[in-house]
Amino acid sequence: MKIAVLPGDGIGPEIVAQAVKVLKALKLNIDMTEAPIGGAGYESAGDPLPDATLKLAKEADAVLLGAVGDWKYDKLERHLRPERGLLRIRKELNLFANLRPALLYPELASASTLKPEVVSGLDIMIVRELTGDIYFGQPRGISTLENGEREGINTMRYSESEIRRIGRVAFDIAMKRNKRVCSVDKANVLETTELWRQVMIKLSSEYPEVELSHMYVDNAAMQLIRAPKQFDVMVTGNIFGDILSDEASMLTGSIGMLPSASIDANNKGMYEPSHGSAPDIAGKDVANPLATILSVAMMLHYTFNDEANAQKIEHAVKSALVLGCRTADIWTEGCKKVGCNEMGDVVASALN
Ligand code: NAD
């Protein structure tokens, strides 16, 4: 197994160190090589995605990423900003499917801002398209009109084949779960998503066992808060998925609990927590490393097909929670507050 380890910025290095610790404790035959990305890439090579980092990522079977970004880079030209490195690596590796499970551990039911009865038992898989949509569509940019006023343009765009391949991922995952797919669009207003809906309906005929439903994105945002347990698999485009998956993260208590996988057509993947680089808490040993550790479990599951070790990690995370260990973001009265490093130690030792 060849893994490219890209810690990135902010809390990235701290949380990735815990995930690496857990992987090493499994004593697998893994070759891990580290490289800079994001702000760290800009600092070391003047590029948020240095050529050497991209080469390493292309040659690896999987990529473990921390997070990128810091407000201090906001004044850089757009193509030099950390987030461009992230968008580029996803595009270069053709990681078109982003899987974000939102699963509530019963031990954390009281850490959610929603009532325990609304979220307890929650288990949603959000499948977000990652390489298309308004984030990549051309034309884009800011131009000056004849009257001197400036105008910003982005283009929402999806081809039938792009919609079909992300739809397939969602239907395949639903077949292994509760066989329900909710496709989220804005087909009443946006033609791009009208096509999205038509393609999903056509594709569903190949999956007669899966129940397909449709929901407008504004309603989906509301339903996720009102009655989130109604969902099994949600599939949606890049921008809607970006927003809905962050919303879903709060159902689980903290964004620090949510792993993610971004995979290509051959199950090569990049695995990263759903959150950002949290510059406000970087370097303080308070970040929650569980989303990153759970991302490694997803890596073992989706890229390496190693279900036994993936489950070992998931059980070890659960054990740490059952023991009452909590980082600050999920801490409640009566639990033991631990730092990022200690949480990594507890999970690693719970593996055995
Ligand atoms: P963020 O996810 O970094 O932080 C949002 C809030 O959640 C903050 O209060 C932070 O302290 C908290 N938080 C996040 N992860 C946590 C963890 N593991 N444990 C405990 N608390 C955690 O989002 P933001 O503040 O909007 O963005 C900060 C930077 O991250 C920006 O530069 C942004 O561009 C970047 N970003 C990167 C990614 C990525 O690398 N995939 C995703 C989103 C944002």
Task: Write up this protein.
The longest helix has 16 residues, at 160-175. β1 (2-8), α1 (12-25) and β2 (31-34) form a beta-alpha-beta unit. The chain has helices at 12-25, 39-45, 51-59, 82-92, 116-119, 160-175, 191-204, 217-226, 238-251, 290-302, 307-322, 340-350; strands at 2-8, 31-34, 62-67, 97-103, 123-129, 141-144, 150-153, 180-185, 211-216, 233-236, 259-263, 269-273, 325-326, 336-337. It is 39% helix and 20% strand. By secondary structure, it is α/β, with parallel strands linked by helices. The chain is globular and about 60 Å long. The chain starts with a strand and ends with a helix. α1 (12-25) packs across α10 (290-302) and α11 packs across α12. The chain has a ten-stranded mixed sheet with strand order 2-1-3-12-11-4-5-10-8-9, with helices on both faces. Strands 6-7 form a two-stranded antiparallel sheet. It folds into two domains: 1-96 and 260-352, 3-Layer(aba) Sandwich (Isopropylmalate Dehydrogenase), CATH 3.40.718; 113-252, Isopropylmalate Dehydrogenase. The mean pLDDT is 95. The structure holds nicotinamide-adenine-dinucleotide. The site of nicotinamide-adenine-dinucleotide (NAD) has 22 residues, from α4.
What does the secondary structure layout of this molecule look like, with pairings?
Blueprint: E1 2-8, H1 12-25, E2 31-34, H2 39-45, H3 51-59, E3 62-67, H4 82-92, E4 97-103, H5 116-119, E5 123-129, E6 141-144, E7 150-153, H6 160-175, E8 180-185, H7 191-204, E9 211-216, H8 217-226, E10 233-236, H9 238-251, E11 259-263, E12 269-273, H10 290-302, H11 307-322, E13 325-326, E14 336-337, H12 340-350
Parallel strand pairs: 1-2, 1-3, 3-12, 5-10, 8-9, 8-10, 13-14
Antiparallel strand pairs: 4-5, 4-11, 6-7, 11-12
Bound molecules: nicotinamide-adenine-dinucleotide.
Residues 11, 15, 67-70, 83, 86, 255-256, 272, 275-281, 287-288, 291, 329 line the site of nicotinamide-adenine-dinucleotide.
